[in-house]
Amino acid sequence: MRLFLSIDLPDSLTDAVATAQERFAAAESLRFVDPAQTHVTLKFLGDTDEERIPAVEAAVEAAIDDTDVGPFDATIGGFGVFPSLDYISVVWAGVRDGAGAAEMTTLAEAIERETVGRDFDPERHEFTPHVTLARMDDARGKEAVRRVVREADPDVGTFRVAEVRLKESTLTNDGPRYETVRRFAL
């Protein structure tokens, strides 16, 4: 099973995510994420044997208990790219500072500690709370993406975060399909 832990955006933000993606319409070589599947990844676990799911569940429950983070509001807004404006592979909308970013970072760091402590691989990058909007296949649309990222700072929307989800990702010819395996209340 290909697994990750996330905070999913609600259906009420699907249209706003699609509108944010439209700002990048002139950028060739972008593959847009289905707005209905957008989320903030807290931890990517990758290929995981099904018998390890109880260890994942215990890690998330311990992380939530340790952080004492309760339900909170998060605002999605502003654009960025990974890894840099010189070499773009991912286009994203961020989580605004002071509007959920600290809580998400606290959860992600606690989940990282708990999962690594249970012999899951550590993340290779520092956590940046974001929603992936598109992936870039090649540099043809780089200038258009750079222009939008530098000039636009939209608010995509605000939503209530009340749970973390364990998700399974199945890769298909039409893109990934996500299914919730388990929900963890904050």
TrEMBL record:
Keywords assigned by UniProt, alphabetized: Hydrolase, Ligase
So what does this thing catalyse?
Answer: a 3'-end 2',3'-cyclophospho-ribonucleotide-RNA + H2O = a 3'-end 2'-phospho-ribonucleotide-RNA + H(+)
State its Enzyme Commission number(s).
3.1.4.58
Q: Please give one Gene Ontology molecular function term for this protein.
A: ligase activity
Q: Which Pfam families match?
A: 2_5_RNA_ligase2
Q: Source organism's superkingdom?
A: Archaea
Q: Does the keyword Ligase apply?
A: yes
Q: What is this protein called?
A: RNA 2',3'-cyclic phosphodiesterase
The record lists the organism as Halogeometricum limi
